[in-house]
Design goal:
This protein has 2 domains: 47 residues, no CATH class; 292 residues, Spore Coat Polysaccharide Biosynthesis Protein SpsA, Chain A, CATH 3.90.550. 36% of the residues lie in helices and 14% in strands. The chain contains 13 helices and 12 strands. The strands form 3 sheets. The protein has an 8-stranded mixed beta sheet with strand order 1-4-3-2-5-8-7-9, sandwiched between helices. A two-stranded antiparallel ribbon has the order 6-10. It has a two-stranded antiparallel ribbon with strand order 11-12. It is globular and about 60 Å long. Bound molecules: 2-acetamido-2-deoxy-beta-D-glucopyranose (8 copies). One 2-acetamido-2-deoxy-beta-D-glucopyranose binds next to α12. One of its GO terms (molecular function) is hexosyltransferase activity. Keywords: Glycoprotein, Glycosyltransferase, Golgi apparatus, Membrane, Signal-anchor, Transferase, Transmembrane, Transmembrane helix. This is Hexosyltransferase. One of its GO terms (biological process) is protein O-linked glycosylation.
Amino acid sequence: MERIRLLPMELPSATSINNGNNTSNSNNRGRTSFIRRLGLGCIVLAALGLLYVPAYHSAQGPAFGIGETSSPAGSSGDSHFLASVAQLPGWTFNTSRNLHLYIHPENNTSILSPNELCTPLPYLLIIVCSAVANERARSAIRNTWASEENLHYDAETNIKVAFLLGQSDNDTLNASIMEENYEYGDIIQEKFHDTYNNLTLKSVMMLKWVTTNCPHATYLMKTDDDMYINVEGLVKALKLRPHIKGSLIGSLICNARPISDPKNKWYTPKYMFSEKIYPNYLSGTGYVMSLDVASKLYHAALETPLLHLEDVYITGLCARNAKLRPINHPGFSYVPRKLDYCVLKSAITAHKVNSSVMYSIWNKLKETNVTCTTASTDKKAVKLNRRGRNVGYYLVKKRSNSRCT
Ligand SMILES: *[C@@H]1O[C@H](CO)[C@@H](O)[C@H](O)[C@H]1NC(C)=O
Ligand SMILES: *[C@@H]1O[C@H](CO)[C@@H](O)[C@H](O)[C@H]1NC(C)=O
Ligand SMILES: *[C@@H]1O[C@H](CO)[C@@H](O)[C@H](O)[C@H]1NC(C)=O
Ligand SMILES: *[C@@H]1O[C@H](CO)[C@@H](O)[C@H](O)[C@H]1NC(C)=O
Ligand SMILES: *[C@@H]1O[C@H](CO)[C@@H](O)[C@H](O)[C@H]1NC(C)=O
Ligand SMILES: *[C@@H]1O[C@H](CO)[C@@H](O)[C@H](O)[C@H]1NC(C)=O
Ligand SMILES: *[C@@H]1O[C@H](CO)[C@@H](O)[C@H](O)[C@H]1NC(C)=O
Ligand SMILES: *[C@@H]1O[C@H](CO)[C@@H](O)[C@H](O)[C@H]1NC(C)=O
């Protein structure tokens, strides 16, 4: 772990070297310093390559700060330099981040809008943000945790699941979405270009759709199509809460830092976010809010410049602007769960679930011959929790665990 901590310190210099050939950036550092940095950078990159790959791949959900530091020694010049070079695809320095331009709050932007979703009024509406092409994932969810039998509770506890998509420019896919919706009637499609860097628009469209079409529901959950949701466990947890209003719960991530490496999936240029640390936020893999919170977050979003990291943006930046505090619940986690009955039974969310794992979990939970002891909790998830709060992934360590409130 100590060694891994070197990584974020070294990457900014490595990347500035990559881009350094065609600039005058090094004029105040000198040629020898540049070459030394180049050599050091190569060695460090080679040495850390193996460490870096697992760290990268074990990161869950958009944007948590994989311990990326803004390394006080010497990065401010570099990041300023990067800001002018490494543009975020789709969100260049020039692109407006005013949500009004994309969300069109005054207009109906729904292409598909299933009207049975909100009658009778749902106690819990689960919106699964899905990519247009992920038909298999949607199908696995429909056949497992979102199946009719699994959503059946008492009369006051109506639970609905719907998928939220944007638009694809592929006419074949476009047509198959129409067909899929014709068959299942559970697809909300909104007018925006459905891409990875547009996930924030998807989440804000979710808030728009729900506050417009379903304002009297009790709870809204946002999740993704690679998640298993233990609906029974979730409902149990929600019913235990003393207050409904003001709820914003999930897996809390504290003191995460923007990643300044342009090659990283969660790269955030300074022009998108200039603070050193993200506000505390909930992992985008699954978070739940009451409808009053959904409405406040939606209105805050219209006044908050877009950040492409959906979870940091909605549950961090917009929540802060709306004076809402995201709260950790230990059942939510962004780590994959062990395929173990007791682990799964006690969890609310499980991440990195592809369609075959989805069925495995579903079948696992059908076993009736298991008795769980208190010892059989998800150790991996517990390890990431300090005093009931996630402090981020293992790269965000010690120095950052004290101020997680
Ligand atoms: C930003 O806008 C200016 C003028 O509108 C244009 O010349 C420049 O190429 C744009 N830069 C990028 C990165 O889009
Ligand atoms: C929104 O609706 C108004 C009134 O119907 C219309 O004038 C305007 O062009 C619409 N805007 C968009 C972006 O569709
Ligand atoms: C918005 O438009 C869609 C598609 O035409 C329609 O199904 C839906 O009912 C409309 N929603 C509202 C609130 O008017
Ligand atoms: C559109 O999507 C279909 C189905 O995924 C794929 O086979 C086809 O190649 C895509 N077409 C284009 C132009 O990308
Ligand atoms: C694709 O989507 C657009 C926008 O909703 C729609 O106008 C068009 O008819 C769709 N194409 C197909 C083949 O369904
Ligand atoms: C995001 O969606 C908007 C609206 O559809 C579109 O103009 C823009 O190109 C998209 N950006 C990306 C990064 O896909
Ligand atoms: C699903 O994930 C499991 C474990 O993560 C992997 O072994 C399997 O190959 C994946 N299946 C598909 C179809 O991607
Ligand atoms: C429980 O039953 C399943 C089949 O339903 C079996 O595969 C599993 O090994 C059993 N587990 C225990 C602990 O007996």
